[in-house]
């Protein structure tokens, strides 16, 4: 029996050595929060699992910010510039843990995946796909969106020039957008997230003022508003940011 | 009066029982053999009630059955009403059934379906009432990025097993090696591995079951990897005599459930999946031990192996056994956790 202690145990998918899984501290959640999520073996929020039309939680992935260890402290780190593998390395993956022995014992096509991004505490999950592999990919893409929405990086307005990923999501009429930037990237493109993150960074730096941000981006206030309103998650994040500065929501 | 009422009561009491034999059977005491089974397990595994005449997986059938949108909506409502809201996975299955059944444009009216609505209705009932696995009902399982055709007689590939492919592709020299998938079943592992191989890579997909050979052939063809996967009919190493000592790696998800545990399996598994693919004999180790014994003669030096096991105890036992009894042949033998943190796999290298 003592020999069992000497067994080498690896993990698949691999996690970093410090994998004593910390229990996420769940802070009071802002919007209609489902029942608390546990890490590792987890229960899906009833709001999503009871849904018969779609399992995708309405906020686009059941993303929740873990708080203290959380969003905002990841300043200047370009998470969205990382490859999927690099990003995955920073995540703890929780799945439905079979209560029993799993494997051949079990037929349950539950292949939900829940990713917790350790540096920011952001959690993304996916359940609607038919294989775990695909759910992992969906969760990862949601994680990218949630990072874009929740991780703010400070900007120095004195010498600010909009990064190319932001220019790419601007309408062509922007006067700061050069010809070489290419066609406008829309919300369905995976490159939209980095642009959205940069836009929110800017909006944060100008205290939520759309007209100030619009000036910097060479757009009319109306044109920038339309861009923000074109994507539900971007609109929600922008309005939360504005609300925190005491501004009225964009409609 | 008393005798009259006594004599009439049993009559009315018995009649409905006679008319419904399943209920009657449930009321009888369980046969001795199943005394260890849980309350959820039926006394004896039932023969499959289904026998759909068409063995083609639903998603591969031609979409030639028009169904008016209203009829389709009515079916959806009826089907949803059969499952409680507390079973979200069944509602997901219903959605997947309909997505498999519908042609590319589901919004057209009438919708073009791959099976008549009546058939879909029967399929749904087999799943929710007969506990026939959803994957057998629709004839596929989504596994990794593949849609793997399955049917009765082959094991439905499990999500745990997806990780095996990632382990294998990380092995040095993977791409141009020769690999064996022993007990390939649906061929899921073989196809997924083959898709990652380079020009000289090969997979020998072995199975003793003729149904498995048929289904694996279909999956290999569907993914166009005939040039890389060679399906061989036979038991474990038997059909691999000509490649002895030449294999870069051996992969297997053999039957590993202890025979004693079979009666307690969930109905979807125990009633419907092939015992051949589940029953691991005494302590579930029969086939795993056979595989361990044959390994060293088929693997080339430096070759890799990965076996799926029943979890923790079995993996620990095998790691212990291989690294003591056969320490001269193998190194870096270890147990690998699955996503549920069960020691699900045993991996190692030939010296």
UniProtKB/TrEMBL annotation, chain A:
Domain Prokaryotic-type class I peptide chain release factors: from-to ranges: 89-148
Cellular-component GO terms for this entry: chloroplast
Annotated stretches, region: Disordered: 37-76, 96-115
GO molecular function: translation release factor activity
Low complexity compositional bias, start-end: 45-58
Family annotation (Pfam families): RF-1 (PF00472)
SUPFAM superfamilies reported in the protein's UniProt record: Release factor
Compositionally skewed regions (Gly residues) per UniProt: 59-73
Coiled coil (UniProt feature): none
Taxonomic superkingdom: Eukaryota
InterPro entries hit by this protein: Pep_chain_release_fac_I, Pep_chain_release_fac_I_sf, Prokaryotic/Mito_RF
PANTHER family: CLASS I PEPTIDE CHAIN RELEASE FACTOR, LD18447P
Family to which the UniProt record says this protein belongs: Belongs to the prokaryotic/mitochondrial release factor family.
Name the record gives this protein: Prokaryotic-type class I peptide chain release factors domain-containing protein
Organism: Panicum virgatum
Upper classification of the organism: Eukaryota, Viridiplantae, Streptophyta, Embryophyta, Tracheophyta
TrEMBL record, chain B:
Residues spanning the membrane: none
UniProt region (Disordered), positions on chain: 1-56
Domain Methyltransferase small, residue spans: 175-256
Cited InterPro entries: DNA_methylase_N6_adenine_CS, HemK-like, RF_glutamine_MTase_cyano, SAM-dependent_MTases_sf, Small_mtfrase_dom
Any Pfam family the entry gives: MTS
Bias (Polar residues) ranges: 1-10
Residue spans of biased composition, Pro residues class: 42-56
Compositional bias segments (type: Basic residues): 17-28
Keywords, sorted A to Z: Methyltransferase, S-adenosyl-L-methionine, Transferase
A biological-process GO annotation: methylation
GO molecular function, one term: S-adenosylmethionine-dependent methyltransferase activity
Source organism, top-level taxon: Eukaryota
Biased composition, class Low complexity, residue ranges: 29-41
Protein name according to UniProt: Methyltransferase small domain-containing protein
